[in-house]
Design goal:
This protein is an alpha/beta fold and 264 residues long. It has helices spanning 12-25, 42-47, 70-85, 126-132, 155-167, 171-182, 188-198, 218-223, 243-249, and strands spanning 2-8, 31-36, 51-55, 66-67, 91-95, 99-101, 114-115, 152-154, 186-187, 203-204, 210-211, 229-231. It has a single domain, classed as Alpha-Beta Complex (Spore Coat Polysaccharide Biosynthesis Protein SpsA, Chain A). The longest helix is centred in the first third of the chain and has 16 residues, at 70-85. The chain starts with a strand and ends in a 15-residue tail after the last helix.
Length: 264
């Protein structure tokens, strides 16, 4: 049911735990990984049976997926669309270094073209809504936007969107230029939601199953299976690698002899 698209960078331990958590529940499903001019994860990607692309041009700002320029936003989106083209499942999840999958995702929450993942308070800026209504009058005045790590995307919609955008010369450039006049910050989540709504897609969320760590009883909700995917999970950021992890990455052998990464 669920494939995955993952843009990674320079968090090797988090990278390994993220893809291990996906493969634990989805051992044979599509996994498309793009490295944003970061570290070389090709060896680990092969071990986890993933398609891996290492781009020497960077789109992010070294910390988040706030895209540095119009050109970088275009690069990010074209990568995303290319990833969608390689997904065989009806939906795919957006993996990031701070996404962890604890339980299989229920099919019952797959109800729109973009499902989650963000806080309830995430609503489009008024000027973006005003512009969107030129193309889609059904956009609400306080319309939720998702698109963060942990979001689910309907594969067929984004394959179709890619085809619409690329068959018309300069269409994506024109859309991004128009977007820049109303919002000069290219945040990947807002941008993905904007494109979805502009082309009459549906954006819903956030369901409890796709969450961020703002619940007081978070551990209990995860343990009981109410929360399946957690975004903003930075447990493995900037942590040293074990010997087993460095071997899996194909890097120099160093570190402790034990690892808690579930290997393929």
């Amino acid at each position: 049911m669920i494939g995955a698209y993952y843009q990674c960078y320079k968090q090797p331990k988090a990278f390994l735990h993220t893809i291990a958590s996906f493969r634990k529940h989805y051992p044979t499903q599509s996994l498309y990984i793009v490295c944003d001019n970061g570290l070389d994860f090709s060896n680990a990607a092969k071990a986890f049976n993933a398609t891996y692309i290492h781009d020497i041009l960077q789109s992010g700002n070294n910390v988040t997926n706030q895209l540095a320029s119009l050109e970088n936003a275009k690069r990010y989106l074209l990568r995303f669309f290319e990833g969608a083209r390689h997904i065989k499942e009806p939906y795919f999840i957006l993996l990031e270094d701070d996404v962890h999958i604890f339980h299989p995702i229920p099919e019952s929450i797959c109800v729109s073209d973009m499902v989650g993942c963000n806080r309830d308070s995430a609503v489009m800026y008024p000027q973006i809504v005003e512009n969107l209504r030129k193309y889609n009058p059904e956009v609400e005045s306080r319309h939720y936007y998702g698109g963060c790590g942990g979001t689910l995307f309907r594969t067929e919609f984004f394959k179709s969107l890619h085809e619409k955008i690329t068959k018309t010369p300069n269409m994506l450039d024109d859309i991004l230029q128009e977007y820049k006049t109303i919002n000069d910050k290219f945040d990947s989540d807002i941008l993905l939601s904007y494109l979805t709504l502009r082309f009459h897609g549906t954006v819903t969320g956030p369901p409890t199953e796709l969450s961020e760590p703002y619940y007081n009883n978070l551990s209990a909700l995860i343990q009981r299976g109410y929360i399946c995917v957690l975004h903003q999970y930075k447990e493995f950021y900037n942590k040293p690698l074990t010997m087993e992890e460095t071997q899996l990455l194909g890097w120099k052998n160093e570190g402790a002899p034990e690892s808690d990464v579930v290997l393929p």
